[in-house]
Amino acid sequence: MDETIEFVTVARSLDTSEMLILSARLEAEGIPSFVADANINQTYSLMSIAAGGVRLQVPSEFSFAAKKIIADVNSGLLALDDDEGFLV
Length: 88
Fold this sequence. Notes:
- This protein has helices at about 15-30, 40-45, 50, 65-75; strands at about 5-15, 35, 55-60.
- By secondary structure, the protein is α+β, with helices and mostly antiparallel strands.
- The chain has a 3-stranded antiparallel sheet with strand order 1-3-2.
């Protein structure tokens, strides 16, 4: 049986690093993801806008959960306190 997985774009940016960080956050939450077009945008940064930027994609079944996590990250809900997470 051949099962096809449909991927959907849940975020776009001209900043490759931002998409890689979001991808890592999704992976930490158990959501498989990948960053599409990162290489072309890093290699040819002047063409980044024309190429549509970097796309963060997940399997369609995870899109709702991924968008929720991305919204929480962007709102600051998942931000660490200044003193949290550092060993002194």
